[in-house]
Amino acid sequence: MSSAHLIVGLGNPGSKYKGTRHNVGFMAVEKLADLWAVSWSEEKKFKARMSRAVLGEKTIHLCEPLTYMNLSGETVRAVLDYCRIETAKMLIVVDDANIDLGEVRLRIDGGTGGHNGLGSVEQHLATLEFSRLRIGVGRPAEVRQELSSHVLGLFAGGEMVILDRVLGRVVQQVECWLQHGAEQAMNKFNGKLEFPDEDKDNITT
Questions:
Q1: Which of 5, 22, 61, 150 is catalytic?
Q2: Residues 84, 69, 130, 91: is their CA dihedral positive or negative?
Q3: pTM for the whole thing?
Q4: Low-confidence residues of the chain, pLDDT below 70?
């Protein structure tokens, strides 16, 4: 049985989208690559940026689809087939506007929640039975603001404080998922970050 795992961060390629809320999936896998000291390369056959780490007996493939969000499933299907990775050993990392910034939720199945990237993955895999780690980015502060402009917008300065800690938590959760499985990773890390020694109003403004 293959020991290979695939971790896919969803987002949009190009400098126009760098640092936007919709690209927190990219940010998460890039943080993992930095931690594991591995480099990226563009793989045209997958339409993706790829990185590979070896941790003990596990080979971990990190992936950033370059297809744009709504076609992410093309890349995911291609990588799974080429590397012969089981769907059970895949984790998709995505943004979620229905979850507050500061909260993360790992699930082993479920719906798309209207997320175009997850919808594309479902379409190409013909299943929703795969692990997904949702990173909350919150809803627009202004009622009149379109959700699309919110998720394609940059994080505010105060939000970056929270985001940095969230990404640190995501890294820990992914490593727990790799070492101990989804159930332990969910039980230990799902939920909202707390800032016991800080003024939350000052952090989130």
A1: 22
A2: positive
A3: 0.92
A4: 1-2, 143, 195-205
